[in-house]
Write a structure and sequence with these properties.
mainly alpha, 14 helices, about 75% helix, globular
Length: about 290
């Protein structure tokens, strides 16, 4: 059950990301926001790594660079920009395509074997996301289309980075993700200076707190946990966090924001949880043996 607890914690952290991004995205540029998240996350993990014993790692530095680009630089910018044009329900559905894209990359590009239970679980999970998050209002034309394209590209980038993270063998996840976020910061800094002039941005104290939370928890801590989960269970299982995020959002909305919880939500949540169990073939086989 430990892996499911870790998956839930990751999903809870990411599930609140859209709320904090929405607080600052109209006043802080997408590149600058991405830079601040990566910088604060890198500082957080650097402080944690100071208490670790030095370990030799055989990881090729090119993987750090590639993961920084596809996991941090590209999706951070695309999500921050895409959320300006689409609702949170549409955004969660599009980002939830990460497991499906990961499955396609595994099978067709990296020639890896995927069990039928994992395939069914991923497809069933996406169906559950559709039931849970399908927007009840109409889309508003070209703006929504542009935002949709940006978020789909972010999902593709996330999926590729998931597979690359499996290459981070040995060593500490804290050090691995510290290096990734550090490289991302170096890449984003000149981009922010050229395109957005971050030193001239004016933020309220509330927005500053939101950015600090995004950097510590939604960048540093969550990537540490994510890398740990990938090491233990693989990229496909870790990608299921994108299915749990909308479940967390709906549940928190009901208990904290007094939002309605309708029959459609219950059905979607049940489908997603069933898909999560199907994705682990060992669980299915164990249950079959009991009968």
């Amino acid at each position: 059950m430990r892996k499911y607890s870790l998956l839930l914690i990751i999903s809870c952290i990411w599930g609140s990301q859209f709320f904090f991004v929405a607080l600052v995205t109209n006043d802080v540029g997408a590149i600058t926001l991405s830079l601040l998240k990566a910088l604060i996350g890198a500082v957080c993990l650097s402080m944690m790594s100071a208490f670790l014993k030095r370990e030799n790692s055989n990881v090729n530095s090119k993987y750090y660079v590639l993961i920084a680009i596809f996991e941090v630089v590209i999706p951070f910018i695309l999500i921050a920009q895409g959320q300006k044009y689409v609702s949170s329900s549409i955004a969660s559905m599009l980002i939830a395509m990460v497991p499906i894209i990961t499955l396609v990359l595994f099978v067709y590009f990296f020639k890896k074997k995927v069990s039928k239970f994992q395939t069914i679980g991923i497809l069933l999970g996406f169906f559950g996301i559709g039931v849970l998050s399908w927007p009840t209002h109409e889309m508003n034309g070209s703006g929504t289309l542009f935002g949709t394209v940006l978020l789909l590209l972010a999902a593709m980038s996330f999926a590729l980075s998931l597979i690359l993270m499996e290459k981070l063998e040995g060593g500490s996840p804290i050090v691995h993700m510290r290096n990734v976020l550090g490289i991302a910061t170096v890449i984003l800094l000149p981009m922010a200076i050229i395109f957005e002039q971050p030193l001239q941005i004016s933020m309220s104290g509330f927005q500053l707190v939101a950015i600090i939370i995004l950097g510590i928890f939604h960048s540093g801590i969550v990537y540490l946990l994510y890398n740990l989960l990938i090491k233990k269970e693989g990229a496909l299982f870790a990608s299921f966090s994108n299915y749990i995020v909308p479940v967390v959002g709906v549940t928190l909305g009901y208990f904290i924001l007094d939002e309605p919880l309708v029959t459609r939500h219950f059905i979607g949540i049940c489908i997603i949880l069933s898909a999560l169990l199907l994705s682990k073939e060992r669980v299915v086989h164990k249950n079959q043996k009991e009968y």
